[in-house]
Specification:
The chain is mainly alpha-helical and 74 residues long. The chain has helices at residues 19-24, 29-39.
């Protein structure tokens, strides 16, 4: 059983084997650890002021999301 890339039910599009199948069949411990490490996304949250300069970061992930928050002026 495989899933489409757009199926984010288990948290990461790089998960090749769905969790129910991991419990159904015998898999090597190494393979299960690799799949579980991909299945649980790692993330880092930090703040950067773009008025100071560009942001440089080393990406150790398979994706990057940038979120922008603005303070509403009253």
């Amino acid at each position: 059983m495989t899933r489409e890339i757009t199926d984010y039910k288990y948290g990461n599009m790089n998960t090749i084997i769905s969790p129910p199948l991991l419990d159904t069949y015998h898999w090597s411990e190494y393979l299960k650890r690799k799949i579980k490490s991909v299945n649980h996304p790692r993330f880092d949250v930090f703040e950067h002021d773009f008025r100071v300069g560009t942001m440089n970061t080393n990406i150790n992930f398979n994706s990057l999301q940038l979120l922008s928050f603005y303070k509403k002026k009253r």
